[in-house]
Amino acid sequence: MKRDRMAPFLTEGRSMLLAYDQGLEHGPSTDFDEKNVDPALIMEIASKGRFNGVVFQKGVAERFYDGKVPLIVKVNGKTSLPKGEPISRQVCSVEQAVSLGAKGVGYTIYLGSGLESEMLSEFGRLQEQAHEKGLPAIAWIYPRGAAVQNDTSKEIVAYAARAGLELGADAVKIKYTGDASSFSWAVKSAAGVRVFMSGGPKAPTDDDFLDQVKGVVQAGGTGVAVGRNVWQNSDPVAMAEKLRKVVFS
Questions:
Q1: Is residue 221 part of a domain?
Q2: Beta bridge partners of 197
Q3: Residue-by-residue pLDDT tens, the chain, 249 positions
Q4: Does any domain span residue 1?
């Protein structure tokens, strides 16, 4: 039986990851307040909330990762300042991620961008390097660019999931289609690759977000890679507990 490289991030086949890699792309004024701007708080939430993993860019990992929760280092990134077709290039090597304690690496691909070929090629090299060291390569696959009209349609989200399979990703982080039935097509298209729903912007209410997570679980997804819907919450640890009850039900 093929070894599941995602095992360090799983509990009985399910998982919830706490993502905090938004600072590079979004800047401090979009997502953060006086409390959650501090990465030390996120590390505390990850531990107290019993997350299966935490996601940091390398600079945050260097200064704030304490080893209490398995680490995924996001190895590429971009800012929101340039306009035009999106591209996110590698900013951290697999070797550096390992030296920081990473048990996995993450990489964003903007599928549909006019510059997608550069990201596809770079992820291909990254995936091979990660697998040589026994680490999972996790693909954040977000269809985006002039060619993409609806990035949460059943067809586009399934395309993102399938691209992860074809590229050799161990897991994909993709957007939710809006209901369990249509999202199940993305899970089937991934053909065994672990499927995580991207948490996205803060939902109007906790129940709205938890309903989405229920749909992911019903569709056969592995879980969620969530950030703002937890650490922007007034009680992040309590929100994490609500999330656990859904993911691991």
A1: yes
A2: 174, 224
A3: 578 999 999 999 999 999 999 999 999 999 999 999 999 999 999 999 999 999 999 999 999 999 999 999 999 999 999 999 999 999 999 999 999 999 999 999 999 999 999 999 999 999 999 999 999 999 999 999 999 999 999 999 999 999 999 999 999 999 999 999 999 999 999 999 999 999 988 999 999 999 999 999 999 999 999 999 999 999 999 999 999 999 998
A4: no
| Residue span of the structural domain in which 26 resides | 7-247
* 197 located within any domain: yes
Annotated catalytic residue 65: no
Domains: count for the chain = 1
Q: Which of 142, 159, 175, 176 is labelled catalytic?
A: 142
* 103 is an active site residue: no
- 218: domain CATH number? 3.20.20.70
Q: What is the pTM of this model?
A: 0.97
Classify residue 147: in a domain, yes or no. yes
Spell 211-238 as b/e; 16+ CB within 10 A means b: ebbebbbebebbbbbbbbbbbbbeebee
Amino acid (1-letter code) at residue 58: K
Q: Write down the catalytic residue from 74, 103, 173, 175.
A: 173
Task: Output phi, psi for 103, to 5 deg.
Answer: -105, 0
